[in-house]
Design brief:
Length: 471
């Protein structure tokens, strides 16, 4: 266990560059590393445990009543807007979590999700219709706009694009301030400090969510979207719902859905364009199997290479690279006895790059997924167990439809010489976006020379030919 100055240094390194820190601790200490509390008097000296591997993920995620959520985001003081907006589904545990999750489940069922395809397809077309040949655009920004519109339309029944963009930008600002506040030791509500600005931004966020709910009221009596369901629960006092709960749920749904999906989309399109032979095979698959736009769910589910591309992008660049849990009683994890209050940080990023599970783990190789389903705790881009991501089938549909449409209409190449850096700001995102050039779909697929830390994250060597018979 690291203690004293070593734990301080370690903690600062984790905050500054979590992925580099997690790689270094895994190399040095193995799959479990315990960090003493940098301030032994803070929260009773609770420890932090970093864990890599499916077995630990199974123990932790499989026991949600022992390992509770918390610690992933900064909470404000009680009574602050930051505290209130972070009390939604994600912060709930036990029976309250189960009841609220059940209430919100219907819009995320497989049949409900399939019914969204036409709307998602229209929104995708509205985005790509704006693209002009030979222009360079930031694909990350484009995908943020898309996932923002999709979240606003489908989750909230809100067709006001300007309002949804304002919410998306406010969430982005909130996450950036959250990251800045963590790195700054002064957690005081003072003008000019990152923490003070974070608190003000949360107040703005709360006001925007309140307006969003007000707009949702007009459809609430019959609406099947999640906001209508929550407003009806508020009006009928189901689960003792209060307005602050609806705002907090709406905030977490918005933040959890649009930020993660935008990252997954941007990384997927980037990885496809940097692997020309995969791009070519994927285009063949799409061309030969999809006759209408949008394709129906069975058609889209029957495309093995598309499925492999999406899963492989989520494996290599998981939008949520690690998750936090807090032990709620003394419990063993591996050979460590955790105490009530100790924090566990599950490192999905490196579990998904374990060479024993994934041959040549840093290579983008969609064919590895043909006919194979790894253990659900060894591949966890959507987490696992009873708290599996509520929107995972929704996200997969959005990802697949977007890739299909972009490939049908355009060929994208990364701007030569672009610096592509992955950073963790709650989610794993491209630091300066991903500049890509739009070409007609002429099948002249080619990779571009690039710089940035992505070159350490992905092994870009050419892959062998796609062999459909190997499925
Ligand atoms: C590629 C896109 C997405 C990824 C990678 C992703 C990933 C995750 C992960 C890893 C968790 C668990 C976090 C934890 O327990 O610490 C989670 C939870 C959650 N996700 Fe997603 N998500 C995505 C899209 C969505 C979408 C589209 C929605 C829809 C609204 C959504 C809603 C949620 C909710 C509500 C939770 C909390 C569930 C609970 O605590 O019971 N996510 N997601």
């Amino acid at each position: 266990m690291l203690r004293g100055i070593a734990s301080w240094r370690s903690w600062l390194q984790f905050i500054r560059d979590p992925l580099a820190y997690l790689a270094a601790t895994q190399n040095r200490f193995g799959a479990l590393c315990v960090l003493g509390n940098p301030l032994p008097i803070w929260r009773g000296g609770r420890r932090f445990v970093f864990a890599v591997g499916g077995e630990y993920a199974r123990q932790v995620l499989g026991q949600p009543d022992v390992f509770r959520t918390g610690g992933q985001v900064m909470l404000g003081p009680r009574g602050s807007a930051l505290y209130r907006i972070r009390r939604g589904l994600f912060a709930m545990n036990g029976p309250r979590h189960r009841a609220n999750r059940r209430l919100m489940q219907p819009p995320f069922s497989k049949s409900a999700v399939a019914s969204y395809a036409a709307t998602i397809a229209q929104l995708i077309d509205q985005i790509v219709d704006r693209w002009r040949l030979d222009e360079t655009l930031d694909i990350y920004r484009e995908m943020r706009t898309l996932s923002n519109w999709v979240a606003a339309h489908i989750l909230f029944g809100n067709e006001d694009f300007a309002a949804s963009i304002e919410i998306g930008n406010a969430i982005e600002e909130l996450l950036a301030l959250d990251a800045r506040a963590r790195k700054n030791p002064i957690w005081l509500d003072m003008p000019g400090t990152p923490f003070g600005r974070l608190l003000r931004q949360a107040e703005r966020m709360e006001a925007l969510m309140r307006q969003c709910i007000e707009r949702g009221r007009k459809n609430a009596s019959q609406g099947t979207d999640v906001i209508s369901i929550l407003i009806r629960a508020l009006d009928t006092q189901t689960l003792q719902m209060r307005e602050t709960d609806v705002i907090a749920h709406a905030f977490i749904l918005y933040a959890a859905s649009f930020e993660t999906t935008a990252n997954a989309l941007a990384w997927s399109l980037f990885l496809i364009s940097q692997h020309p032979s995969i791009a070519s095979d994927l285009h063949d698959e799409i061309n030969s199997q999809i006759a209408t736009w949008p394709p129906d769910q069975p058609t889209i589910d029957a495309l093995p290479l598309l499925e492999g591309v999406v899963l492989e992008a989520l494996r290599l660049m998981p939008p949520v690279p690690f998750t936090f849990r807090t032990a709620r009683r003394d419990v063993e994890l591996g050979d460590i006895l955790l105490h009530d209050g100790d924090k566990v940080i599950l490192n999905h990023f490196h579990t998904q790059r374990n060479a024993d599970l994934f041959h040549e783990p840093n290579r983008f190789n969609p064919a590895r997924w043909f006919g194979v389903r790894p253990d659900p705790y060894e591949f966890t881009p959507f987490s696992g167990g009873p708290r599996l991501c509520l929107g995972y089938s929704f996200a997969l549909l959005e990802l697949k439809l977007t890739i299909v449409r972009v490939m049908q209409r355009f060929r994208l190449t990364v701007a030569p010489g672009a610096a592509i850096d992955g950073i963790v700001q709650l989610t794993l995102r491209p630091r300066r976006g991903i500049p890509m050039i739009v070409h007609a779909q002429d099948r002249a697929f080619m990779a571009s020379p690039i710089t940035g830390n992505i070159r350490q994250m992905i092994d870009f060597r050419a892959l062998p030919e796609f062999a459909p018979d190997a499925r």
